[in-house]
Design brief:
The protein is an alpha/beta fold. It is built from 12 helices and 12 strands. The protein has 2 domains: about 150 residues, Aspartate Aminotransferase, domain 1, CATH 3.90.1150.10; about 220 residues, Aspartate Aminotransferase, domain 2, CATH 3.40.640. The termini are far apart. The structure holds glutamic acid. Glutamic acid binds next to helix 1.
């Protein structure tokens, strides 16, 4: 069968994050006691006002095809929202394009920019879908290993080491999935200057920008001067900060020719994003009354981050982890948890699943010495999962 499939799919594998979460749901439905810390999905309900806007949109008859690039109200709301996060910087709503989730925004961006023979640098460990999406564009993903001494982030020197003339793009995620590390304003500026000098496109995935544990929103490419944004596509979306994963609304802010190309592309594939969901998202991004919900959710993520970090420090002091400063992931190293120091993330996750906790092995992100835990789960679930995991680490250490 597989020999009759297109070479477009030569590298295609199903998303591990999605697969593990589906498998966990199946097991839980069959009665197994498993705490699901696999998927990066807020455990909160979508804010009430946002839901009401979606319901009203359906009742008002916004159930026909949406404008292909997004309803004007949503594009304007996203532009205003990003502008408020970036010191009032002016953003042209025409440069915002709405898609079915930020995953599609990233796919459309890559498909519009990259093709055969192009290389795309991807700081690693990296979210599962980046290399896959680059392969689907027939381009070549090039992993740039992050520095373990530096939260697994990459520097200009690391990028330079992998650069050659075929490199056309860089996908940078900050705050980062899977590590939880955040690039500082000066790190972003150095990388942007390097990319600008090389003529490399940057896809700045800032879907987790609001979920940041420093002061204010996380540093962003939008804090940079205009000339450094000539070849930058910024990815944003409703899923994470507004607890709207199922509504499937993503956004990209890009130079006009790229927006036009992405619009043409989705006019041939999806005809824009779900119409009522766009109205709901316009309320999420644009109605200031939703902001207290975001603040509350981010405060809960911060509290849970503190809980995970303090329990690991106290109860598993030998286990290395990336200090999480944003997103809702805890990335910890497991190769040293046994005496032989050769344990893998995949083996650890199998044992964790048997002990009642679903996690994602680092193999999914390009380095199987690590494991990702999503702490976007209720406090009660998180406490139970930590009891089980820290006990497992102790058992493995004694074995
Ligand atoms: N981005 C989330 C994660 O990494 C959602 C699942 C996915 O699309 O990969 O868990």
């Amino acid at each position: 069968m597989s020999e009759s499939l297109s070479p477009n799919l030569a590298y295609l594998k199903p998303s591990e994050t999605v697969a593990i979460s589906n498998e966990t749901k199946r097991r839980r439905a069959a009665g197994e006691d498993i705490v699901d810390l696999s998927l990066g999905e807020p455990d909160f309900d979508t804010p009430r006002l946002v839901c009401e806007a979606g319901i009203q949109a359906i009742q008002k008859g916004f159930t026909r095809y949406p404008p292909n690039a997004g309803i004007a109200e949503l594009r304007t709301a996203v532009a205003r929202n990003l502008s408020l996060l970036s010191g009032g910087r002016a953003l042209n709503p025409d440069q915002i394009i709405i898609s079915n989730g930020s995953k599609q925004s990233i796919f459309n961006t890559c498909f519009a920019l990259f093709g055969a023979k192009d290389k795309v640098l991807i700081p690693s460990p990296a979210w599962v879908s980046y290399p896959q999406i680059v392969h689907l564009c027939r381009a070549e993903p090039v992993a740039v290993p992050g520095d373990p001494e530096w939260g697994l982030k990459v520097s200009v020197k690391d990028l330079e080491a992998k650069y050659d003339k075929l490199v056309k793009g860089l996908i940078l995620c900050s705050p980062c999935n899977p590590t939880g590390a955040t690039y500082s304003a000066s790190e972003i500026k150095s990388i942007a200057e390097w990319a600008h000098a090389k003529g490399v496109w940057v896809i700045a995935d800032e879907i987790y920008r609001r979920i940041y544990y420093g002061n204010g929103p996380a540093p962003s490419f939008l804090d940079l001067p205009d000339e450094l944004l000539e070849r930058v596509v910024l990815i944003y979306g409703a899923a994470k900060a507004y607890a709207m994963t199922g509504w499937r609304i993503g956004a990209a802010y890009a130079p006009m020719p790229v927006v036009r190309a992405m619009a043409a592309l989705q006019s041939q594939t999806t005809t824009g994003a779900n119409h009522p969901a766009q109205w709901a998202a316009a309320t999420a991004f644009g109605d200031d009354r939703v902001e207290p919900d975001v603040v509350k959710m981010v405060a809960a993520f911060r509290r849970r981050r503190d809980l995970v970090v303090s329990r690991f420090r106290a109860e598993a002091p030998g286990v290395e982890f990336v200090e999480p400063t944003g997103a809702f992931y805890f990335f910890f190293r497991v190769d040293g948890v046994t005496r032989l120091h050769d344990y893998t993330g995949s083996a650890f996750c199998e044992r964790a699943m048997a002990a009642g906790v679903a996690l994602v092995p680092g193999a999914a992100f390009g380095d199987d010495r690590w494991v990702r835990m999503s702490y976007a789960a209720s406090d009660k679930d998180l406490e139970l999962a930590l009891d089980r995991l820290l006990n497992l680490i102790k058992v493995l250490g004694d074995s």
